Amino acid sequence: MTKPQIWVASFLMLFVILFILGRVTKEDEVLRKSPPSGMLGQSEQVSTENLSGMELMSVFGCADCHGTDLKGTTKGPELKNIADHFSRQELINYLRNPSSFMNSERFKKYREQYPQMLMPSFNNKDVKDLGKIADYLLSR
Ligand code: HEC
Fold first, then answer.
1. Which of 3, 18, 96, 129 is the most buried (most CB within 10 A)?
2. How many domains does the chain have?
């Protein structure tokens, strides 16, 4: 290489190095600006999408009262033969608003059996998630 060629080449190298350095620091800033994933308020909502009905039931705490195997606890009844009593739509409605079903004989008995406990309403949950839970309960 002649002397001018060496000059040109080293200038080019300098530009390339500055360009790369610029990129690296920019990416650093972007990374630092994004909040840690655990602090995203929406993360809980997003993550239910891939959960099955059975998994959703443990996430929503149904097992606290109905038992991990859904055989019932002192806080809530066993969940069995659900399909004998509810259609899919009725079951979703029930989960959203259990008190509207209170007047049937079956529920009057539950009131006596679990005087301290009420089935909570899950009307703040995504209907799609409740649908998955309904499908799971109706297929058992
Ligand atoms: C705080 C305790 C508690 C939790 C949590 C709870 N349940 Fe219940 N559940 C009850 C009680 C008690 C009853 C009986 C009806 C009543 O007294 O309100 C009941 C009744 C039911 C019934 C009607 C059973 C039947 O024989 O018709 C279904 C279905 C049901 N729960 C599903 C669920 C699902 C699904 C979840 C979670 C998304 C859940 N429950 C969470 C306490 C609970």
1. 129
2. 2
Specify the residue with its C-alpha closest to ligand 1, atom 10: 119
Q: Is the CB of 70 under 6 A from ligand 1?
A: no
From residue 110, give the alpha-carbon distance in Å to each of 79, 93, 106, 116: 12, 18, 6, 11
pLDDT in tens, 84-120: 999 999 999 999 999 999 999 999 999 999 999 999 9
Same domain, 20 and 56: no
**Residues 71, 129 share a domain:** yes
Intra-chain end-to-end CA distance of the chain, in Å: 80
The pTM is what? 0.75
Looking at the structure, do residues 66 and 127 belong to the same domain, yes or no?
yes
- With a 6 Å cutoff on the Cβ, whether 110 touches ligand 1 is yes
Cα 138 from Cα 3, distance rounded (Å):
83
Residue nearest to atom 31 of ligand 1 (CA): 119
State whether the beta carbon of 65 lies less than 6 angstroms from ligand 1.
yes
